[in-house]
Amino acid sequence: MILENIYNMENNLRFIASNFLLEGEVKEIKPLGEGFINDTFIVETESSSTPNYLMQRKNKNIFTDVPAMMDNIERVCQHLKAKVKAQGGDPMREAMTVIKTKEQALYFKDAEGEYWAVCLFITDSVTYEAADSPELAYAGGKGIGKFQSMTSDFKGQLTDILPGFHNIRFRFKQWDEVLSKDHVGRKKELMAEIDWIEGRREEMLEFWSKVEDGTIPTRVTHNDTKINNILFDDKGDVLCVIDLDTVLSSTALNDFGDAIRSYTNTGLEDDTNLDNVSMDMAIFKAYTEGYLSETKSFLKPAELEYLAFSAKYITYEQVLRFLMDYIDGDNYYKVKSPEHNLVRTHAQYKLLQSIEQQYGQMKEVVADAVK
User: Quick one: which H or E segment has residue 205?
Assistant: First the structure.
């Protein structure tokens, strides 16, 4: 039965692949990675002269408008390719290439209603799982900065496929509703944690109002800035940014702040030993310098003024979301124990406190990097 299921799955994957405009005959299709959101496969072709491909089943529960998502991706990729070509680079290696179906669509929808997409596999590229040194942090900042620089003149708006994403006014609306319902009765034991959120509400809304009124402009943003979404060549130079599923029109500060939240944390996101958790200033400095080496020429004064603040903003938002989910009965994030979201809340709050304690120094790092 197991062999039969494997055989049926392989045949199904081959059928899906056959709907796309691939060069060469398919030799093998193998799973790639752990697939936390999408299911990813590498499609190997028979000849060394034909390329390999990445094929993904897109998670339609998270991405509820896959056609719009794919349209966003293609528009950004075409913009990047034009920029790379104008600069004398290789658009097939320095930008993602979406492979269309034989009907010229950007995705294939199978009989079960699942959405599939294919892109070119970029050979001779290197990825890293963590930015565990200032050198890698600098490279990661440069990678995201390069992406934002190359899309800084992108025309038009992208479809908002994740409504409310990093919008603290939207999060506060959810938060207030969850607190008012308190349907699992946890609120009474969390007065200190709730004060963490309420004590910073005005500060966070003041920042977001500058996004809403255009003081802080809207740009093309990646929204998943971990370092393994950047491809490097064998010399350590940035090739391109990949995994554009979450590309949106938002503030560039969201990408910076989320990168700092993840890159600089000396502990785990759910660390039970809070002594492990702090913001590593050396990593912050390196990422910031790499990022600004690509972006300081076009970021506006308001963006530079609030660049360091964005790390506070995004980390605060994550504290709020973990605590909100705990109060709501753990309906959003997967949990390993009944207290898991509360553990996450405390760990992220410790990181937020560390960021706040070093905030003056962070602003000095930004100021020095833009001189």
Answer: helix 201-212
What values do phi and psi take at 39, rounded to 5? Answer: -95, 120
pLDDT digits (tens, 9 = 90+) for 193-248: 999 999 999 999 999 999 999 999 999 999 999 999 999 998 889 999 999 999 99
Residue 37 amino acid letter: I
Place of tokens 């506070």: 312
* Cβ atoms of 117 and 106 closer than 8 Å: yes
Distance CA 86, CA 97 (A): 17
Place of tokens 């658009």: 91
Tell me which CATH code domain 134-369 carries: 3.90.1200.10
Domain boundaries, the chain: 2-120, 134-369
Q: Using the structure block, give the residue that is written with the tokens 């960021």.
A: 355
Residue position matching structure tokens 């005959």: 25
CA distance 208 to 167: 7
The pLDDT score that the predictor gives to residue 132 is 86
2-120, which class in CATH? alpha beta
242 contacts 93 by C-beta, under 8 angstroms:
no
